[in-house]
């Protein structure tokens, strides 16, 4: 027997039709047996808070003198006449029966509403439906972990264990810095070549996706080799440090920048005072408003010993090249200072100062060329011609 029905009006339980096909006409070959339809098992899913609507799924012999909907064998609603309708238990106050169509509507679904709903009339059983209810995916957290080898590090996307059992099968998506969302697993492995500054994740259920996690910093993100004056430098430990820690020291060229002994015993030193912040939990150091003199070696140590060190350079940046003549001091030659920008460097415009001294009384005019190789390998060699003073 070949039967065509509207899934929107009469969604048959036990079919393989996707939920997205609501409202379309479907035809299916059914094997008819007494009081039952034999189909492949399928349980439609709903999320907490959604509305469930169930219908008879097939024509029902009239007239009807009573209507009963049950949940796992227990009464949900019992109708005998328009003035004799009774709703039961947890469904009272959020369930409505349409007597003309026999449709049952339940609002504000809860996890405990998952189960089997069945419809009966005075003529006998009509239909039954398996329904599953899952949680809305909660906002996850991304955790960073360093393994024994610093080359092996990863992020893990985690949701509350109380929610996991009620989500069903899930997948994950990851976002590194401002990149696109990429499909993945619960764990995101990083390599030396993949070095994002921060990472976010999402949890995807069969019905929807979660809000993105708050960005989590990569503790092994390497600082750039060069910074401009005025920028902010962030340094991280990038190692598993044995706990507990009683002393944290960051140094610049071997000199103390900050010394931490306890939350109320933190001392910042010298030129870094007032623009440096230490996060004692992550050992992260942040320095604002970098100056040229901040270039050098930064090192971290605890009472357990050295942890890590970083070489950082700070440069001046100018918009365009220019020449300027500095008035001579007593007994000194004029100084000609020229600034050049490498407009084609991959790392952007970077300027360097070149100085040539010239003496008074020099005969004629000559051209002098000077060049320098910047600290950044991405910046090409810059050649500058300087004209000597007479």
The largest sheet is: 6 strands, mixed
CATH class of the largest domain: Mainly Beta
Radius of gyration: 36 Å
Tally of alpha and pi helices: 1
Shape: rod-shaped
Number of strands: 34
Terminus-to-terminus distance: 108 Å
Per CATH, the architecture of the largest domain is: Sandwich
> Which spans have pLDDT < 50 for at least 5 consecutive residues?
1-41, 319-326, 331-390
CATH superfamily of the largest domain: Immunoglobulins
What is the percent of helical residues? under 10%
Number of individual domains = 4
Strand order of the largest sheet: 5-13-12-7-8-9
Q: Please state the average pLDDT score.
A: 74
Q: What proportion of the residues form beta strands (DSSP E)?
A: over 45%
Content-based structural category: mainly beta
CATH fold-level name of the largest domain: Immunoglobulin-like
Short account of what is shown:
Keywords: Glycoprotein, Membrane, Signal. By secondary structure, this protein is mostly beta strands.
């Amino acid at each position: 027997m070949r039967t065509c029905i509207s899934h929107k009006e009469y969604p048959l339980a036990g079919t393989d039709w996707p939920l997205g096909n609501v409202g379309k006409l479907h035809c299916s070959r059914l094997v008819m047996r007494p009081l039952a339809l034999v189909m492949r098992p399928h349980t439609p899913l709903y999320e907490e808070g959604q509305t469930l609507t169930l219908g008879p799924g097939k024509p029902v012999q009239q007239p009807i003198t009573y209507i009963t909907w049950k949940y796992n064998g227990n009464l949900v609603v019992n109708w005998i006449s328009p003035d004799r309708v009774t709703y039961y238990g947890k469904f009272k106050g959020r369930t409505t029966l349409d007597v003309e169509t026999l449709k049952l509507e339940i609002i504000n679904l809860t996890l405990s509403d998952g189960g089997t709903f069945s419809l009966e009339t005075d003529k006998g059983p009509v239909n039954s439906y398996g329904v599953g209810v899952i949680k809305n995916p909660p906002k996850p957290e991304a955790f960073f972990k360093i393994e024994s080898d610093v080359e092996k590090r990863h992020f893990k996307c985690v949701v509350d264990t109380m929610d996991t059992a009620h989500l069903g099968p899930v997948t994950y998506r990851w976002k590194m810095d401002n990149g696109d969302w990429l499909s993945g697993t619960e764990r995101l492995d990083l390599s030396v070549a993949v070095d994002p500054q921060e990472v976010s994740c999402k949890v995807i259920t069969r019905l929807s996706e979660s809000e993105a996690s708050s960005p989590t910093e990569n503790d092994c993100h390497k600082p750039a080799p060069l910074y401009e004056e005025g920028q902010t430098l962030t340094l991280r430990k990038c190692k598993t440090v044995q706990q507990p820690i009683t002393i944290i020291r960051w140094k610049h060229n071997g000199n103390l920048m900050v010394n931490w002994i306890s939350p109320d015993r933190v001392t910042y030193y010298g030129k870094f005072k007032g623009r440096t912040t230490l996060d004692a939990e992550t050992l992260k150091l942040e320095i604002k408003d970098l100056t040229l003199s901040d270039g050098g070696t930064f090192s971290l140590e605890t009472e357990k010993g050295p942890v890590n060190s970083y070489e950082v350079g700070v440069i001046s940046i100018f918009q365009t090249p220019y020449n300027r003549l500095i008035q001579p001091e007593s007994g000194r030659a004029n100084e000609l200072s020229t600034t050049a920008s490498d407009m084609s460097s991959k790392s952007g415009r970077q300027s360097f100062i070149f100085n040539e001294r010239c003496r008074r009384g020099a005969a004629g005019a000559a051209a002098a060329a000077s060049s320098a190789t910047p600290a950044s390998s991405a910046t090409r060699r810059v050649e500058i011609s300087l004209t000597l003073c007479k």
